[in-house]
């Protein structure tokens, strides 16, 4: 309860809970923590947040007892050197700062030195950057598979090179600069005030650089990560927040380098302030727009749920509107579950209840959008097309064209199969299906060839139009596959034409059989070129006899 940002009557309840927790924590220690790295960091974060709450609302002794429940780690050299991606540096930074604040001291350089460095008692007074740099450069370590001396004993090597040492010192200096306003307020006592938030946001905002991503340095990532962490803590614990300062923090977190999750977290803290409800509502509307523009559709559902929870303090009605907006994309939220998608498509293929209602057919197609976008070559387009022909109908054609306009996938992947399956159901007619088919490229697949589609079209049209359809498709294939094409392609076409006799003469069939033969020979040559000629295990008797003589 001390660590949670949503705690009513925070000051009165935290005072009593902090005292009770502090006395209990003195008798409790976590001997065996979580196994995974993420779980350990999560536990460390919760303990650090609880310790800070006790420090602000009860006493240093209670905060120190809570902090000592778990062995905390200092930031690593990786935390100080990370330039891209989400940083995890704030939790170890906060724990390191609390180890000093709970004793009534200011954070010193040795509190933030890399956790890969063992700090002895006589090294706990590091006065300036030069001393810290010297300490890092002198740190030695031996590696089991590293350099060895003449006797095979491992030689000590430097733990950090010059560049790593410089990055660690730069990172420590930046953390101390960003944390200074927060530290002053904590050590002063009396809780956090609105003026503390104003002072912190002013200082933090002046240190954020707006540069291109490839020009960013590790200190820029630290500035954002550590600053946002301390800003959230002030929003959580301060007695009041002025509207002007709330606008300032919204402007900062709306930058390109901070994630939607970071913005939603700030929104949830602002929404708990009665005087900031209108501002939080506007910010929530802006976040909703960012969520809808997220190209990773599978993340939209999670972010809509987080946004709804963050806006609950504004009222159930307003939160419900954002939740309904998330539900409108429900068909895309679980689309990354391939087994679920294919199970639904198999059912849609065999169900006998007729076409779905328009709104449900759209949701079914949207449900497949993620796979179609990320893995168009591996998606089972034949299954999708059969399911669409059975349960959706002609609107599925429009969806293919829309996906092509949105750069989701090329319509040639599944549209040929779809129009052929639809032609068997007389929607559209075979001639219109042929017109659409010749506009698509022949990608083919492992379980469908255009010869199968030709068979469907010929079986669904009148005899007078069969010859025209067959010649049009043959002309398309011969033009598109001027290099010869694969033998399976021509084999499927020959099979369809032999089934419907009299559509082409013997000369055309002979030509198709030659194309099939050339295609087989070409594929055989390609396989030999990739895999090499088959190995021969015959023994060369002459070579063996010559070897024995020598």
Automatic annotation (TrEMBL):
<feature type="region of interest" description="Disordered">
    <location>
        <begin position="1"/>
        <end position="37"/>
    </location>
</feature>
<protein>
    <submittedName>
        <fullName>Uncharacterized protein</fullName>
    </submittedName>
</protein>
<feature type="compositionally biased region" description="Basic and acidic residues">
    <location>
        <begin position="523"/>
        <end position="541"/>
    </location>
</feature>
<feature type="compositionally biased region" description="Polar residues">
    <location>
        <begin position="1"/>
        <end position="10"/>
    </location>
</feature>
<feature type="region of interest" description="Disordered">
    <location>
        <begin position="523"/>
        <end position="550"/>
    </location>
</feature>
